[in-house]
Amino acid sequence: MNMRQIQFDGVGQLRQVERPIPPLKDDQVLVKVEACGLCTWERYIYEGTESMPFPFVGGHEIAGTVVETGKAVSGDIQPGMPVSVAKWVRCNQCEPCRRGFDNHCLGNDGPSDRGYSGPAGFADYLVCQSYEVFPFAPGVPIHYAALAEPVACVTRGVNKLGAVGGDTAVVIGAGFMGLLFLKLLKLRGCKVIVVQRSAKRRELAAQMGADLTLDPAQSDWTAEVMAQTGGMGAAAVVYTAGGSQTVNQCLAAARVGATVLLYAPTHEDRPAIDLDLIHFKELVLTGAIRHDKESFRQAVRLLGSGQVDFSDLSLSFGSMADLEGEMKRANTDRDIHRILLKW
Max Cα separation, the chain? Predict the structure, then answer.
């Protein structure tokens, strides 16, 4: 039995390939891919903005159905079951894994014996380690299982913020990930202020529950945050875009002892950060990248519970066989939050 994959052979080069599905090891699971989200990461690799060893098979936001399980796989995972897949090595033996940073597992840096790199969700079938497979709630649309990966990344960030009910949180940017931060912070009972230049995105954020939206081009948003918090500042600030100047504004808008989360890089060689703000206000400036196994578990439960409405996100289905065309569509139609690829 063969599996189809969409393989990147180099920058701007892709093709459909077929490979035999390898025999399952005792601790592995064969999953039929039902939908796979098209993230900016794969688009950047295709365009040459980010590097990965070629050939490369992308696809890491994966919803699927279990086809077969190895002999040692727990009975909690059964053929026919809907699942979400966290395609990330977690060896539980390296130093980062032992310290609880399994999102930095060194096993992901090693050579691949498959003949290609990448998570390989751009396929019709996928062989997974059993710990990568999370049962998904029956009755919930299966394509929502593909959202577990981005929701898990945001969940990890929210966990690091430590904001509690009644706190004011600020989210910089109302793109897909910014809106997920909005939804999860509202779930925790926070008052959420969204800072976004686009009027259309501000309107959407308001519809999704933002308590206040601010246009940074029209007013001093840090002053408005101070006014909204009685001069104290926000308990939590999430940066998703804008550069080092915006990071400094995040620090200025934070209250004493607050946490400022860098969810995105600044893409600057030597960003100028106001360290005195961190010192005098005793701020925590931290980052968040990827998901860990606990935040993925939480995300799968959250998506299956119905506690948060994800139906107001703009999801669009596309053809896996026309991946090149779907990447062009994702680059031009900024109103779509995620294109979910299917065969």
Answer: 65
For the stretch 229-256, pLDDT in tens is 999 999 999 999 999 999 999 999 999 9
* CATH superfamily of the 2-135+313-342 domain: Medium-chain alcohol dehydrogenases, catalytic domain (3.90.180.10)
258-271: pLDDT as tens digits: 999 999 999 899 99
Residue ranges of the chain that CATH labels 3.40.50.720: 152-287
> CA torsion 91→92→97→102, rounded to 10°?
60
CA–CA dist 322, 48 (Å, integer): 19
For the chain, give percent helix, strand, coil, nearest 5.
35, 25, 40
Instruction: Looking at the structure, give the CATH architecture of the domain made up of residues 152-287.
Output: 3-Layer(aba) Sandwich (3.40)
Whole-model pTM: value is 0.96
First vs last Cα of the chain: how many Å apart?
Answer: 17
Neighbours of 241 (CB within 10 A): 18
Rounded to whole angstroms, how far apart are CA atoms 319 and 326? 7
